[in-house]
Design brief:
single chain, 60s Ribosomal Protein L30, Chain: A, 56% helix
C-alpha cells in the first residue's frame, strides 16, 4: 500500500464525478456541505494550508495531506493541483482507510 494507490483511487473518484479540484472548487464544496474529505498537497504554502485547515475545522470536514501538487494533479489528469474535495461519503471513507493503513505501515 503506497500513496500511488491512494492517488489512483482519487483518479477513479474524479472519473466517477465524486471529486472536485482546485482551490476555488474545493472551497465551494466545503462551504456548501458537499465535501466529505479535503486533500491538500504536501507542498502547498503555509497560508493555503492554514486557510483549508481552518475552513475544514469550522465546517467539520476531515482534511489530509498527500503527495505534492504535481502528483495530485497528474492523478486527476491535470498539471498541478494544490487541493481537492471528495464529495462522496463512501469514497471519502475509502481514501481515509487507505491513508490510515499507509500511516500504520510507516508512511505519510
Amino acid at each position: 500500500m503506497d500513496s500511488e494507490d491512494v492517488l489512483r483511487f482519487l483518479g477513479l473518484a474524479k472519473r466517477a464525478g465524486h471529486l472536485v479540484s482546485g482551490e476555488f472548487m474545493t472551497e465551494n464544496a466545503v462551504r456548501s456541505g458537499e465535501a466529505a474529505l479535503v486533500v491538500i498537497a504536501g507542498d502547498v504554502s503555509s497560508n493555503t494550508e492554514k486557510k483549508f485547515k481552518n475552513m475544514c475545522e469550522f465546517y467539520e470536514v476531515p482534511i489530509r495531506k498527500l503527495a505534492d501538487k504535481e502528483s495530485l494533479g497528474h492523478s486527476l489528469g491535470k498539471e498541478y493541483r494544490a487541493s481537492l474535495a471528495v464529495t462522496d461519503e463512501g469514497m471519502a471513507k475509502t481514501v481515509l482507510e487507505k491513508m490510515q493503513r499507509k500511516n500504520a505501515n510507516g508512511g505519510f
